[in-house]
Design a protein that fits this description.
206 residues, 5 helices, globular, disordered C terminus
């Protein structure tokens, strides 16, 4: 009897571990399928849109310079936050003074306008799962006749998993999932391909 219970327990542990490991991959394909059918209700349960929106906007605005760390918090670092505000004020005053004293000086480049919402439409999310990167909003899925690219694990822990999709021309897109329950995961971040980046076969790490 004890031997039977031990076997049942071991089988349950193996099955549970396998399901836990496979859950992020299942969520990825669920996102792809829901985006393909434009199932907005399903996507709302699979994608943390606020987080994905913030991440995409930061990347699109940063361009090749890369995304900077968040500014100091007034709660955890009041001195740093105050210094940051004073620095911004001094820059603004400096620019205004320079324009008054030297009106012919070249003006600072305008901040580019980023339509991040166009990346969050179902068709764009579907294109992102195919590795379309920054071309996702204008990616023509109807002309895509190749086999859909398969995601690969690049990182796995108890709380977070990252899957990558490679496009031969654009590079690697990384999808970050965070665990919300025993087997329920949410897409929280999409890292767009970077110029010259190549896919690397990485083993899941804890």
């Amino acid at each position: 009897m004890w031997r039977f219970l031990t076997v049942v327990f071991l089988v349950a542990v193996v099955l549970g571990g396998g399901l836990f490991y496979a859950a992020p991959m299942i969520t990825f394909y669920d996102v792809r399928s829901s985006a393909k059918t434009e199932d907005v209700a399903a996507l709302a349960k699979l994608v943390r849109f606020d987080s994905v929106r913030t991440g995409l906007k930061a990347q699109l605005l940063a361009g090749d310079e890369g995304v900077a760390a968040p500014p100091p918090s007034a709660v955890t670092d009041p001195v740093g936050a105050t210094g940051n505000v004073l620095k911004d004020v001094s820059k603004t005053v400096g620019k205004a003074w320079d324009q008054l004293t030297n009106p012919n000086a070249p003006k600072a480049p305008l901040i580019p306008v980023v339509d991040v919402e166009s990346y969050l439409k179902p068709k764009s999310l579907l294109a992102l799962t195919y590795g379309a990167g920054e071309d996702a909003p204008k990616f023509d899925m109807a002309s895509y006749d190749a086999k859909p690219p398969m995601p690969k694990y690049s990182f796995m822990s108890l709380e977070r998993a990252r899957l990558t999709v490679e496009d031969p021309e654009r590079g690697v897109t990384t999808f970050t999932f965070e665990r919300k329950g025993l087997t329920h995961w949410e897409l929280t971040h999409i890292a767009l391909p970077k110029a010259g980046e190549e896919a690397t076969a990485a083993s899941p790490a804890g």
